[in-house]
Amino acid sequence: MDIINLFGDILAKEIDKPGIACRGIIRLAIKLDFPGKNVENLSYEDLSHVFKNGLKKKLEVIGELNVNAISKKMIMELTKKQSILTFTH
Prior knowledge:
- This protein is mostly helical.
- The chain has helices at about 5-15, 20-35, 45-50, 55-60, 65-80, 80-85.
- The chain starts with a helix and ends with a helix.
């Protein structure tokens, strides 16, 4: 399972944007917080950090207003899907 596709689709529903754009936003947020780190090697803690920090910054850049609520939703989904993330490592 591709973690970027999974969370990109979740983000797309939250902000009503195309999935491909949301996957790009998540990738940019990862690069902001963890430059040079391979996406496939991100841990639960890494993704949680990205959703709390880099993703919020990227959402602010595109003009999203509810970045805190979106961040909390993404972290909630990450927590729910933690077992999937564990199996992919």
